Amino acid sequence: MDNEHTQNPGMDWRILFGLTVTTLWMSTGIYYVTRVVGWTEFQALPTADIGSFFEGAFAPLAFLWLVIGHFMQQKEITANTRATSMQEQSTRRLELHSRRDSYFKLLGLVQEQLGSIAGFHYLSVFGPTGSGEVSLEEFGTLRSDASTGDHSLFIRRMISAAATNSDNEPFVKDMLFGTEIRSRHSENFKRTFGRLLEAAESVDTDDMLREALLQGSAAGLYYRIIRHVAGEEAMNPVSGASTAMV
């Protein structure tokens, strides 16, 4: 009794309705044969008449269960569609999570690459072939510090030089694009960081990663400085002025 009470609430109301109607319909038929026709007279009827009786008696029930089956099938289709949709959403979330994991692994490698590009650019500007402010020994020490985890060391030094000389536009332009090597380093940094931004956009639908990279990192600030000096960004990210260097 307890089991029936537990299972009934889980039964679809259409089945309950069909069972109820079927029971009432068959009870009515039995009552009709018993009280009106009589079983003796019913058995004496020709076979064709008995067949017609059962055909007329069960045809409504057959139609009823056909309709119930149709709606039950629609319910199953809806449930399967919902389950498929949820599975697709779960798959997309797993795929996005996997892409984010891959992105953060890539991020460390790219940051190291950006630091290396900035390091050689720094050597070109302030090393023996540039202003001579930094010797090869000093550069080697700095590069050793950068390789131990401080990948943005040279990026910060380039930003500091640009900020210190923000009023001296010719110097900043010469620092970034004054020679073929410096131009190559600037373009390489800009291109590499640009690809990093594109990768961030592909794994972050609300642009939080992109904004963090562009606005909240040393590499992002240096990237914007290069773009400003190249005339690709109007606002100077250091001074806030809205005039691009040309």
Task: Output mean pLDDT.
Answer: 84
Given the helix and strand composition, which structural class is it? mainly alpha
**SSE order:** HHHHHHHHHH
Backbone shape: rod-shaped
How many domains would you count in the coordinates?
2
How far is the first residue's CA from the last residue's CA? 89 Å
DSSP helix fraction: over 70%
Radius of gyration: 40 Å
Biggest pleated-sheet summary: none
Q: How many beta-strand runs?
A: 0
Poorly predicted regions are 1-8
Number of helices: 10
Strand content of the residues, in percent?
A: under 5%
Question: Which terms summarize this structure?
Answer:
246 residues, mainly alpha, rod-shaped
Write a brief caption for the model.
With 246 residues, this protein is mainly α.
Model description:
The protein is mostly helical and 246 residues long. It folds into two domains: 2-82, no CATH class; 95-229, no CATH class. The protein has helices at residues 2-7, 13-37, 39-44, 47-126, 136-147, 153-164, 169-177, 180-203, 208-216, 218-229. Helix 2 packs antiparallel against helix 4, helix 4 runs antiparallel to helix 5 (136-147) and helix 4 (47-126) runs antiparallel to helix 8. The termini are far apart. Mean pLDDT is 84; it is low at 1-8.
Helix and strand topology:
Layout: H1 2-7, H2 13-37, H3 39-44, H4 47-126, H5 136-147, H6 153-164, H7 169-177, H8 180-203, H9 208-216, H10 218-229
Helix pairs in contact: 2-4, 4-5, 4-6, 4-8, 6-10, 7-8, 8-9, 8-10, 9-10
